[in-house]
Design brief:
about 260 residues, alpha/beta, TIM Barrel, six-stranded parallel sheet, about 20% strand, globular
Amino acid sequence: MNLSVNIGSLKLRNPVMNASGTFGLYDYKDVIDFSKLGAVVSKSVTLDPRQGNPPPRIAEVQSGILNAVGIQNDGALDFVKNKLPKMKDIDVNLIVSVSNLKVADYKKSTEILESANGIAAYEVNVSCPNLETGGTAFGMSCQETYNVVKSVKDVATRPVIVKLSPNVTDIVEIAKYAVDAGADALTVANTYIGMAVDLKTRRPKLGNITGGLSGPAIKPLTMRLVYAIKKAIDIPIIASGGIMTAEDALEYLMIGA
């Protein structure tokens, strides 16, 4: 059976891939047969190294998990020099997640990644806080989303997938700006902002206080977003949110992912 799909100029053997962050990069290559996947999405890479958020970074909640890792990574140069070579013998399309805190840094980090072989596409994470506008996430503003995507498209020779934030009033409008800037596909969506309190310590369970909620609880919410965007825009959509079983994936496929 032919399950291949196209994302812009990129052809995948099937539509199954991980969400950014869940595989690290090559951490699970001895546990999971990556050759059975359509693609592997890396942990987010930033221009400069980041230490991430203070612990605890993960908290289990009802029907999901809160995480506040804080994009810990060693930077784009280290990724190209030390991380990427470890993936060279694995038969799978590698999509590199790109995150940053300034628009210019998205462009600079993409330029570094462009110098390397072995990358099939980029996933641009616009859920990061924009330090130049007081910390509001890029993906909460139509114009800032456009600016980030355009900065990457200006230098990228590979397909650009934009991972949208669900923490917005009108995700369809944000999606339109991403497409206008040149997005080849959309990932819908990132995690939902939430928090949890430890009754014993009377303190938040996460060191960052708030974090991103993932897991079964968010599937109905994300399905609504996928459906709304698909009705409004003709563009490939990668669904991400609460997919735990094959049946979950099929539900998303039935509404246009």
